[in-house]
Design the sequence.
């Protein structure tokens, strides 16, 4: 990648952002995709650690392409939007060309040596890849909000997401896709966690008595609150809120 896209929202088309990529050779080409094709998963690429879809691909010459009409942070990768650097990888992901890897090969915390050889090549190219386990962890909750209530407490609400329910087919809720529904809330002050709560449904009442106890313990002022879903294989990414107590 030769130009770095700015961080954008992941809910609408990014029509102001652009991405310029350098292909390995001039015979490699990219194509446009309609909005319908994008909704069906076309033109999905891994750019750094972010999954991006693009609707428009314009050749610039010399194997360079400008990509526009972007969809950002696909498949829960919105946290990677602000971490792009020039020269990072661009990998076009084509469903029919993907190879299914047995889950027994992918123990989180380990690594795998990967070799690939092209048609006509004499020797393979090898790389080592760390196994982070991100693909099996829950996504960060969305629409997290904290509302002060009468008496000095707070009502905390959020909406969970699911890797098994991207399309919201029933218009009501996403499938759980975990052994159980569980969330962990953590309050921190200057980086130190001073309160942890686990709940089995989206929502929590931070009662006035708990607020008072935290203030008396020296945590008055601005504090950070994170909400994570705890999945079958561990805790997922966090939604972050800031409140003042």
Sequence:
């Amino acid at each position: 990648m030769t130009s770095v896209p700015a961080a954008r929202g992941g809910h609408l088309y990014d029509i102001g952002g652009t991405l310029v990529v350098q292909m390995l050779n001039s015979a490699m080409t990219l194509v446009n995709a309609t909005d319908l094709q994008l909704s069906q998963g076309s033109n999905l690429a891994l750019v750094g650690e972010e999954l991006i879809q693009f609707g428009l691909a314009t050749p610039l010459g010399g194997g360079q392409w400008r990509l526009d009409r972007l969809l950002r942070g696909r498949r829960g990768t919105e946290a990677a939007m602000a971490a792009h650097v020039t020269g990072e990888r661009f990998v076009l992901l084509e469903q029919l060309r993907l190879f299914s890897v047995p889950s027994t090969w992918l123990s989180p915390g380990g690594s795998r040596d990967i070799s690939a050889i092209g048609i006509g090549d004499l020797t393979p190219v090898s790389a080592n890849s760390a196994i982070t386990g991100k693909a099996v962890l829950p996504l960060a909750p969305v629409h997290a909000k904290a509302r002060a209530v009468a008496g000095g407490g707070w009502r905390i609400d959020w909406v969970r997401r699911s890797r098994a329910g991207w399309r919201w087919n029933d218009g009501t809720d996403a499938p759980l896709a975990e052994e159980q529904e569980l969330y962990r809330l953590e309050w921190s002050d200057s980086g130190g966690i001073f309160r942890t709560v686990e709940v089995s449904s989206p929502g929590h009442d931070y009662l006035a008595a708990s607020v008072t106890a935290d203030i008396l313990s020296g945590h008055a002022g601005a504090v950070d609150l994170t909400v994570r879903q705890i999945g079958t294989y561990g805790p997922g990414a966090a939604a972050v809120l800031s409140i003042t107590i």
